[in-house]
Amino acid sequence: MNILIADDDKNLRKILSRELSDEGFDVHETESGLDAASLLEKGDYDVLILDLNMPDLGGLEVLKKIKTLAISTEVIILTGHAAVSTAVEAMKLGAYDYLEKPFKLEELKAVVEKACEKKRLRSENLLLRAQIRRQAEARAIITNSPLMMEVLETVKMVAVSDFPVLVSGESGVGKELIAKAIHEASGRREGPFITINCAAIPENMLESELFGYERGAFTGAYEKKLGLIEIANNGILFLDEISELSPQLQGKLLRVIEGGVFFRVGGLREIKVNVKFVSATNKDIKAEVENGSFRADLYYRISALTINVPPLRERREDVPLLIDYFIKGNPAFKFKEFSTEALNAMSSYSWPGNVRELQNVVHRVLLLSKGSSIGASDLPDDIARKPEAAGRRLEDIERDYILKVMKEVGGQKGKAAEVLGIDPKTLYRKLSAYEQKR
To answer: How far is Cα 204 from Cα 214, in angstroms, rounded to an integer?
Structure first.
């Protein structure tokens, strides 16, 4: 946390700066009220320790400037005995607290810690509000498919309970959108919707991300950190790629789902939360249970209510709708349209990468096509050619698509995994299997 000390008493400034630096704070100092106001306007300080009586610009004037500029810094006032009434006035202007000189260093440190905690909580609250606002603006599920209509009816039914939900389906079908739809249809819609991709975070960091940690829990844990489970309280936590959790974390997660309680890393105090868990996987999680890589008891807990999202090839009637939606989402290309020939070719294609692949192709075609009407010749070769022969195996389609993406990104596996929307480990495994079959 960044702390600014504004006091014209040089000795006091040096003592406070040394003591707070030793506590792990990033401390800056100034002897001038004018300079303090300027620094606050330009920089980002979490806490300001402000003397009321300074020669050029008094503490009250600095406070008024902070309020006018809507600066979010927490202010601790330092005052002499004769100016306590002025300190009370400062509190009315938004100061966090005041200390009367002379004061004990431990007393100051305690007030600074509380001010920092308030600033942290306020920042986290702003982030959550922004996330909720973005989710409210997120795109709706675009569909005319009877299969998807059934899915959306199921969403409404599972949303009313607090039971965990498992969303299954191939990569790119829109599992997170289904999770967001559950949130919007539930009584938790005013609460947070927090997402974590269990495959995208290293195992040694994932526990801290989920459960948080206490100060001093490990090297580098200088301050307490709230985990995503705690931040999702009274809302929904969406665990994407849940099958990638280690057995140890599976056990800890099971305890939270069953009892609503957990410990932060390094913590001794049990924390209680009210969270609805929505999980997602593109794997056959039953097979994962059978081979021992996923706990059976956790599986039965998270799959009490299951929603299977059909792949795009099973709801081809949605392809034209989605194309139109993607075009409208790119105002720069609103003058372009797909010809009947191009729409037929795209509707006939199997889309092994599902909606994510369709979106990428539409964006690419909009960008690279020269005319206002997009024909079949503007499409990638594997989409423009005649519909694939019936009975072609999904595994072959998936292999061809993965190898095509690998070629387009110049063999960069990390980039290919990002385009495909799958975990790099999954991509390495598939590429290795293709090599062995050659």
So the answer is: 16
